Amino acid sequence: MAVPNLQIALDHNTLEDAISDIFKVGEIVDIVEVGTILCLQEGQKAIKAIRAMFPSKIIIADTKCADAGTTVAKNVVECGADWMTVICSATLPTMEAARKEVKELQVELYGDWTMEQAKSWKEIGINQVIYHQSRDALLSGGSWGEKDLKMVQQLIDLGFQVSVTGGLSVETLSLFKGMDVHTFITGRGITAAEDPVKAATEFKETIRAIWG
Amino acid sequence: MAVPNLQIALDHNTLEDAISDIFKVGEIVDIVEVGTILCLQEGQKAIKAIRAMFPSKIIIADTKCADAGTTVAKNVVECGADWMTVICSATLPTMEAARKEVKELQVELYGDWTMEQAKSWKEIGINQVIYHQSRDALLSGGSWGEKDLKMVQQLIDLGFQVSVTGGLSVETLSLFKGMDVHTFITGRGITAAEDPVKAATEFKETIRAIWG
Questions:
Q1: Which residue numbers delimit the Orotidine 5'-phosphate decarboxylase domain (chains A, B) (predicted)?
Q2: Is A72 in contact with B97 (Cβ distance < 8 A)?
Q3: Are B5 and B203 in contact (CB under 8 A)?
Q4: What's the rounded Cα separation, in Å, for the pair A78 and B40?
Q5: Alpha-carbon gap, residue A56 to B72, rounded angstroms
Q6: Distance (Å) from the C-alpha of residue A36 to the closest C-alpha of chain B?
Q7: Quick one: which H or E segment has residue B128?
């Protein structure tokens, strides 16, 4: 079982704030995600700036693309993104179109998707999914439970590289012990910490302690 | 039955191209949509620029928001958007959060949504949905058919103001004759026309001829 990656989600409202955080912790994390909020606020230059700072790090454009897969994918690749996300309710033609343009396409799992749909994504050559606790669901009192862990395991069993995200902390990582999680994604778990460098380091060390 | 609105979708890759088109036809159309591609490419300034050009026109930010409803909605309202879109696979808490911030929230219907879900959106006070033929589905040979028209009518019967979009032309408008469609959305139907002003005028006149 490989050691899971640590991915930081930059969901800032301004590029300045995003840069300020990623400047501190960029070398600690494995993958940098230019979050949807940041993409919508700053456009192309958000991805371009992060790529300029980290020429060889994996950068994800979290576009949650729902349509026009070719155009959206070509645009983010042109800015320097390696991977991008599509929403689970995008049609298969949209996913196929996007997949051809990027190194890896990740399906974002929100709402009422099914394992049948997941199988159809695998059939068109998609290797990665992102299992979510939505921020708004968390704010409404939701949390990681048995049901979530079971679904993550089912996705792994289908052959997906599974990223998990939503309200993760150093403490909740151990819930996934023994599971072949590909990547843990956190935003505020690092950026809202009193000491982001310490927080990122603790995430990395805890992952290594459990899976190393 | 009210006369349906005509909405232009600005799905350009650059603000310059979008402005060039909307400058010509902005006064003819009823609603201006800052498309997802344009939002992702140019960020905030796309909405701000369109608002600056048309101080009193309805402007929609087509964010297809899937999470962080409050933040995304607040951000687009700050730029001058009146309405915004969420994706159908967003959770109800995300939709509720976004709905509180904007004048109207529109649910974008992609993939395998159900009428049961539509009822739950109505119950939390959402009045508008957008029925889609996705661009990629159209490229794969899909088109408007009996099934689409029936679903649009079902949504109208549920009490939604329904916008329809995807490969619409002056000729296909008559397919919806007798239906209480709220808005027809077209992008390339106007922007890719040899004469965009003539195309927009023809759309408006045809709508008026059928529903007036």
A1: 5-203
A2: no
A3: no
A4: 13
A5: 30
A6: 9
A7: strand B128-132
Q: What percent of chain A has pLDDT over 90?
A: 89
> Which residue in the set B45, B89, B139 is minimally distant from A89, CB to CB?
B89
For A118, the domain range is 5-211
Provide the 3-class DSSP secondary structure of residue B88.
Answer: coil
Tokens 């974008």 sit at which residue?
B108
Confidence of residue B137 (pLDDT cuts 50, 70, 90): low
Chain B residues near residue A9 by CB distance under 8 angstroms: none
What is the domain count for chain A?
1
Residue range A39-93, pLDDT digits in tens: 999 999 999 999 999 999 999 999 999 999 999 999 999 999 999 999 999 999 9
CATH number at residue B187: 3.20.20.70
B85 CB neighbours in chain A (<8 A) are none
Name the pLDDT band for B134 (thresholds 50, 70, 90): low
Mean pLDDT estimate for chain B: 95
How far apart are the C-alpha atoms of A64 and B72, rounded to whole Å? 13
Q: B162 with A97: CB under 8 angstroms?
A: no
Both tokens assigned to A15: 């590029």
The answer to whether ipTM exceeds 0.90 is yes
